[in-house]
Amino acid sequence: MLSLPAEFEQFHWMVDMVHNVDLGLIVIDRAHNVQVWNGFMTHHSGIQPNDAIGKSLFELFPEIPQDWFKLKTKPVYDLGCRSFITWQQRPYLFKCRNVRPVTQQADFMYQNITLNPMRTPTGEVRTLFLSIQDATAEALISQNSE
Predict the structure, then answer these.
(1) For a designed S-S bond to 112, which of 106, 116, 118, 133 qualifies (C-beta 3.0 to 4.6 A apart)?
(2) How large is the average pLDDT for residues 8-15?
(3) Which helix (H) or strand (E) holds 20?
């Protein structure tokens, strides 16, 4: 049996985790072009990676207010700190279908989003990654308890 170097095996595991984790992961550059698009995003948005990578986030999701979103990314790029968008501030950033319509009565997926800086080896932030969490159940419970 052929033995692969440990580094290659670990890299393969990381790629597999990124694409199969129950969390949306998107990497964008400073021009807001998509560099990475994981399986969660494919499943929930219906957009395939080859249709997303290299395209502007605003082209893929024209409902995103550009000026507002650029203000949210500015501290991530300029200061290297995280930024957050919660479903209470804005129900969703990416209009994705609710994939559990029988158990959850919502027309779309509510989202909590974290914008995270990605540093080069020299410490420069050229890209950021968005982690998108499905907060639909939490939002519906909160709305129904009011």
Answers:
(1) 133
(2) 66
(3) helix 6-20
